Amino acid sequence: MPHRRLAALAAAVVVVVAGLSVRALLPGMVGKYAGDLLYTLLVYALVVVAAPRARPFAVAAVALGVSWLVEFAQLTGVPAALSAHSTTARLVLGTTFNGPDLFWYAGGAAVGYAIHRSVLSTIDRFCRES
């Protein structure tokens, strides 16, 4: 399983770079919602790093649950308070609840699921042919 962890870690790095680039380069809501989708995709990759044998549906459910949990936590004001003192906290926890973010997080989980399933099926096909 080290190859799965390594691939997921590489994917996480690519997603972080993409997320920071999207937020910096794309205007307004396009960049914001693309960033939301990529946020959940990053959580997805990190779940695979932690549990490389987990099934894609379970990983998608955990990634979506974590993303939604962080978003709903913003209703408490705790993430905003932490974000006032830390750029990292602002990037990880956000500051303000925004309902449409929940939809984009689901999109990120769906994209992660589709990529994960595709990669696993390619590996399975390769192993059968070898």
From TrEMBL:
**Origin: domain of life:** Bacteria
Please give the name of this protein: Membrane protein
Keyword Membrane belongs to the record: yes
Q: InterPro entries in the record, alphabetically?
A: DUF2809
Transmembrane region positions? 33-51, 58-82, 102-120
Q: Sorted alphabetically, which keywords does the UniProt record give? A: Membrane, Transmembrane, Transmembrane helix
